[in-house]
Amino acid sequence: HRLGIQAFKPILVEGNAIQLHPLTCSAFNADFDGDQMAVHLPLSKAAQTEAREIMLSSHNLLKPATGDPIIVPKQDVVLGCYYATLAKPLAAGETIKAFNDIDELVLANANGLIGYHHLIKIKLTPDGDWLETTLGRV
Length: 138
Fold this sequence. Notes:
With about 140 residues, the protein is an alpha+beta fold. The protein is built from four helices and three strands. The chain folds into two domains: about 1-75, Barwin-like endoglucanases (Beta Barrel), CATH 2.40.40.20; about 85-135, no CATH class. The protein has a three-stranded mixed sheet, covered by helices on one side. A hairpin with a 6-residue loop joins strand 2 and strand 3 (about 130-135). GO terms for molecular function: DNA binding; DNA-directed RNA polymerase activity.
């Protein structure tokens, strides 16, 4: 079927296996138990243009027949999204730290002052209201 052939921008990795993004697996009916896939290279300029403009997986997000989404988060992706957005309750006597922008927030995380699940307050725009959230949600 049409979605069984898609174009990707390769990234070289160590080893002999092709690493496929989990969101693209359903289009190929692929899983991670040792499936085999063929690799074809577009040689002519016309074939390369077609691959870049029509066949990229980012251009094939919906089923052609029904318009239903093909790329749907499942399993590990859903668990990862849930975990990233968890909020840890404040401990006794702990206060919510406030940050003026995302750069300040990321720097505080890099220095170990806050984690992804700590409640924080941040201004997402200079003249905006304070938003109570977590780094994982930002």
